[in-house]
Every structure is written in structure tokens, then in C-alpha cells.
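Allow me, if you will, to draw on your knowledge of protein folds for a short while. I have a record of one protein: its chain in single-letter code and its fold written as C-alpha cells. I remain grateful for any guidance, and I place the record below:
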Amino acid sequence: MKRIMIPIVIILILIAIIIIRPKERIEEYVPIKFVEARIVDRGLVQDRVELLGKVVGEKQVTITPEVMGRVVKKLKPEGGYLKRNEPILVIQNDLVGFEYKKSYVRSPISGRLARIFVDVGQRVSPQVPVAMVIDSRNLKVEVGIPERFAPEVEKGMEAEVLAGTDSRRVRARIY
């Protein structure tokens, strides 16, 4: 029995030495980075934030027809200028058994025809918006500002607005 125990004890001691033995340390090479320092000139520092917004007119009207019927014709293209009371769409009521005169959807204000919500041939009723007209002399851009920038924004500050697909730059004021 002693013959078997002595080799087992020697094997256990060797295993313990291998496991407990201190491992070699490998040092990593970290390259030194050099930086350049400069003296800063005094001047204006501008902060720039790009946001998406919605352009709305100070006066804008969503128009609904006075009668129900089918849109027969669009008289003005989107983006075109309208005078007050100028017709935009022609509507014909096509109920069987009756004969109706054509009805016109007119602009209640002067401005640009921002949007026509219906197509020719579509049925409309007085509850359905058919067009939007915006007085383009005074426009607003409604923008949500992230909370972290809110303390830096003040009434009267200048802003630059990129307008349209051709990216025209327009100066504006925050109010």
C-alpha cells in the first residue's frame, strides 16, 4: 500500500507545483502619442445644430368643399399663387336622377396653393379636406429642439434655414 501511496503523493505535489507556479508576465507595448498645442485666438465661437422642421404659414387654411360630389378638374397646380376667392377645383355632384351645376372650391385667402389632397375622379364631401393654402409672405418653421440645447436658445437669436430642394439659405429669427 505504501508503494502505491508514495507515487500518488509525488504526482499530486508535481501537479500542485505546476498549477501554483507563478506565471511569466507579458508587458504590453503602448506607443507614445505626441500632441501639438497652439495658442487660441480670441473670436466668436458658433455652435451649429441641424434640425428638421415643418414650414407653416402665419396664415394657412385647410379647405373643405361646400358640396359633396366627384372632383372633375384641378384648376391650379400645387405651388401656384392664388388670389382670394379664386377657384382651385371643380366638383360635380353625380347623383342619379338629379342634375346639378358644377361647384367650385375657392381659396378663402390669397397665398400659395401648398397642397391638393385629392385626385381627379375622387369623391369628396364637406368633411373631407381637399386643399391647403398658405399665405407665403410670413412663414414659420416649427422645429423641436433637443432638451440639452434649450438653455442656449433665446428669443431673437438668428438662425439659418435651408429652404426648398435647392437648399436656399434664408436668415430667420427665433421667436
